[in-house]
Design brief:
heterodimer; A: alpha/beta; Alpha-Beta Plaits; Rossmann fold; six-stranded parallel β-sheet; 19% strand; elongated; B: alpha+beta; 2 domains; 10 helices; globular
Chain lengths: 530, 297
């Protein structure tokens, strides 16, 4: 049997074409194979060799012509298939996996049922690709930062017109139908939806919900600027709409740093008009009394707790849930949350920890990798310690003069741009944080170091191991270390293993950031009293 | 997130400016762009030498361009002044940076090294070419006939064979085309050679035939007609033609032809060898007298 297959406008060097021909020739039932450009002279040679069929005669000089003689039709088809696969592998020569493509169009040709595009291009190029994705009917997860706000507005308007969601720019995390996108934790599926303009806030709440026995239906990131006056909360409003119409979702958690007041009002109006129960966790915003179906939380852990209880998880101290629905999908993974997750570290007496601090040390130093967690820490510490400063404070009077040098009580977001230019994010690479931990430990005024340790997909495979040398040094110098561990028992790093490792290096581990902040603040207060 | 910006190590001064085009081939060592005016622009890895409409990129040596640069076939390309933009995320700065200049002169450029001698695995007769794939063997046979016609001064017969070589053979630049490029290089390097005697006719006719081959290879034929050769081709033809009409070297010589051959012989799978074959035939060297090896110093 003879078969010819033509690939239009396909240019390949002879080494590559010969390697394809050699591989195809090894297939069972293949007698002869040729891969050449379809020039007139090459066709003449193929004709003489009995390798040219009608299909091949249509090839032009810029087309690749694959010809094979085989024992059967099936072998012919196998030959063409193998040659096509070889050509496709060339297109993805630098990448792993069979689904790598170099363009959106190529990716869609190979996986036409896709409904989401993850875009991680330099900011100035992101808009064009995001627009293309939207116009092809794809929701967009826009990881890129440095996207101009005008581009963000234009993209979100287009998405809204097309009924498609634009998550981002600068969106680092999402959980969509149980699929983790970007930095995300592996959590049980359930009936709690999240819309967050705060990446680690989303991670913290989803982990705490999981650890309390609840589950997440979908968690949608919006990008940190979404609730600004300019952007107008377009993605959060769209996300709320999607969760309102999602039959799985029973409770919706909204998370953000303080939004623009007019936008906050618009978001709350939509929540009040909704059919679902809402928990609003605008970290650092003034609290408000519960109002109909809307409940307010002052911290991320409080938001998670309230959502869990509303979703059907028994309240603390109670055996039965307040509702009837299961807080998780009955078919989902149902690893029972270890009891240690609920109380770990939180019940430690600050005075006991402070007693291990070397004399003369009195200040708290927070070294964060998660921006939202850092912001929550700064907000909580304001009412507990005098003169707390941060590199990401919204209050200019509380901004650090030089984020690279600490003085007094400080909480630092090491994931902020000033620390990450030209180097990986501290959630991935612990070099910067280890160096800073040693720097703070060596400061004779540092009493307690506060850390966040974030697990999950995309995060460092062994955070405790990476921090170990600096933690040992901190203990040797008489510095207390308190860490919040954001993760679940399902995360690839293993919550229990990381917790045990951190504790073995003298770290007091809390399961929630707010608890860790309160404990560390207590240590600093007691240590300052001497 | 930094933009993907790559500096150029070297840029052909005749590179069109401005131009719009699309990427038509992405390989390990080159990226080919077809401009709106049907010109070929080549982006090359540092290991390749300078050539017509070629930009050598300041990227790590030894890596595949296809792997290093996120560029796909069909991506738009636009040059304006010193900036060449490919697709949506790659910019090439077409002016020498201190880094690029330093790297250009560094030992990473393969033609700066001396590797001794290298075998020249050309057949000495049609029978020896039987080990080659059919199309390449046929190109060799036709090239021998073409050279005979050139040596005999039979322009008509020569042109007939030359035409039959266009587009004959495997790969991005078929063997027949590579032989013709070598032949034209010989014509230019040695004005008294057989190739030079028929060169004018070939230069006149060849532009009419380039549509018989692929776009990339056709572009190299057009460049050769214009006298624009890859630096490796120019160096090899210059070396081989030194002292012409005395033969530069032959199989009985104890001293192999010296020249910067290693780069040329490593072009593609067979292109380098086929170009050298074209040069030698253009100089009138008979197959049985062709050198077994060449010096690569």
């Amino acid at each position: 049997m003879l078969t010819n297959f033509v690939v239009p406008n396909s240019y390949h060097d002879s080494v590559f074409l010969m390697s394809i021909a050699a591989k195809v020739k090894k297939l069972p039932g293949i007698r002869e194979v040729s891969c050449v450009m379809g020039t007139e002279e090459n066709q003449r040679i193929l004709e003489i060799a009995g390798l040219l069929a009608d299909e091949g005669r249509k090839a032009g000089p810029n087309d690749l012509l694959i010809a094979a003689i085989a024992d059967s039709d099936e072998a012919c088809r196998a030959a063409v298939r193998a040659a096509q696969e070889g050509l496709m592998r060339r297109a993805s020569s630098s990448a792993e996996g069979p689904l790598f493509s170099r363009s959106l169009q190529g990716a869609l040709e190979r996986q036409p049922d896709s409904n989401l595009a993850l875009i991680s291009l330099p900011g100035r190029y992101a808009r064009e690709q995001a627009e293309q994705a939207l116009r092809r009917g794809l929701h967009v997860f826009l990881f890129s930062d440095n996207v101009p706000v005008a581009d963000e507005i234009a993209l979100k308007k287009l998405g809204r017109e097309l009924g498609l969601l634009v998550m981002g720019p600068d969106c680092g995390t999402a959980l969509l139908s149980g699929v983790a996108v970007g930095f995300a934790n592996r959590v049980r599926r359930g009936n709690i939806g999240i819309v967050a303009a705060a990446g680690t806030g989303l991670q913290e709440v989803s982990c705490l919900v999981h650890n309390r026995g609840g589950g997440i239906s979908h968690a949608i990131g919006t990008g940190g600027r979404d609730l600004s006056e300019a952007v107008g909360g377009m993605s959060m409003l769209q996300g709320m709409e999607l969760l309102e119409n999602d039959p799985t979702t029973r409770v919706v958690v909204l998370i953000s740093k303080p939004p623009a007041p007019s936008i906050a009002e618009r978001i709350l109006d939509r929540a009040r008009a909704g059919r679902k129960r809402y928990v609003v966790g605008f970290v650092g915003a003034a609290g408000a009394p519960d109002n109909g179906n809307v409940t307010f939380a002052s911290t991320l852990s409080e938001a998670a707790e309230r959502a869990a209880v509303l979703s059907g998880v028994p309240a603390r101290g109670q055996a039965e849930p307040s509702g009837h629905a299961l807080p998780y999908e009955a078919s989902a993974e149902l690893t029972p949350p270890p009891a240690a997750l609920e109380t770990s570290g939180c019940d430690v007496d600050p005075a006991v920890l402070a007693s291990r601090v070397a004399p003369g040390r009195r200040y708290l130093r927070g070294l964060y990798s998660g921006g939202t967690l850092c912001y929550e820490a700064e907000h909580l510490l304001r009412s507990r310690l005098q003169g707390v400063r941060s590199n990401i404070s919204h209050d200019p009077k509380r901004l650090m003069a030089d984020p690279r040098r600490s003085g007094g009580h400080v909480v630092i977001d090491l994931g902020d741009d000033e620390f990450t230019v030209g180097r990986p994010h501290p959630m991935i690479d612990f070099t910067l944080r280890t160096e800073r931990l040693l720097q703070e430990s060596a400061d004779p005024e540092c009493a307690v170091i506060l850390l966040d340790v974030v697990l999950g997909y995309g995060a460092h495979p062994d955070p405790a191991g990476a921090l170990a040398p600096a933690l040992v040094e901190a203990r040797r110098l008489g510095v207390a270390v308190v860490a919040s561990l954001c993760g679940t028992d399902l995360d690839p790093q293993g919550y229990a293993a990381q917790k045990a490792a951190l504790e073995s290096f003298g770290v007091t581990v809390c399961c929630a950031n707010a608890d860790a902040v309160r404990l560390a603040a207590g240590v600093a207060v007691v240590a300052a009293r001497g | 997130m930094p933009a993907n910006v790559v500096a150029a190590l070297s840029v052909d001064p005749l590179l069109p400016d401005p131009f719009d085009g699309i990427v038509v081939a992405v390989g390990d060592r080159t990226i080919s762009i077809r401009t709106a005016s049907d010109d070929l622009v080549t982006l090359a890895c540092p290991q390749l030498c300078d050539g017509p409409n070629r930009v050598r990129l300041d990227v790590p040596v030894g890596h595949s361009l296809a792997g290093l640069l996120d560029v796909a076939c069909g991506a738009p390309a636009r040059r304006h002044g010193t900036l060449l933009r490919l697709g949506h995320a790659l910019e090439i700065v077409l002016e020498g940076s201190p880094t690029a200049a330093a790297r250009s002169d560094s030992a990473t450029a393969p033609w700066n090294g001396c590797a001794g001698t290298q075998a020249l695995p050309l057949p000495r007769n049609a029978g020896e070419a039987d080990r080659w794939p059919e199309a390449r063997r046929e190109a060799f046979v036709r090239a021998l006939s073409m050279a005979q016609q050139a040596a005999a001064g039979d322009t008509e017969g020569f042109l007939e064979h030359a035409r039959s070589l266009v587009g004959l053979g495997p790969g991005l630049t078929p063997s027949g085309d590579d032989i013709l490029v070598g032949f034209l290089a010989a014509a230019r390097a040695a004005p008294e050679s057989p190739a030079a005697r028929v060169g004018e006719s070939l230069r006149r006719e060849l532009p009419c035939w380039v549509r018989r081959t692929g776009f990339v290879s056709g572009a190299y034929l057009r460049f050769a007609v214009e006298g624009r050769f890859d630096e490796g081709v120019a160096a090899a033809s210059s070396c081989l033609s030194e002292g012409f009409p005395a033969l530069p070297a032959d199989r009985d010589s104890t001293t192999p032809p010296a020249g910067r051959f290693s780069l040329l012989l490593n072009y593609g799978h067979t292109s380098g060898e086929d170009i050298v074959l074209g040069i030698l035939l253009g100089l009138g060297v008979k197959p049985e007298r062709m050198p077994w090896e060449v010096s690569t110093c």
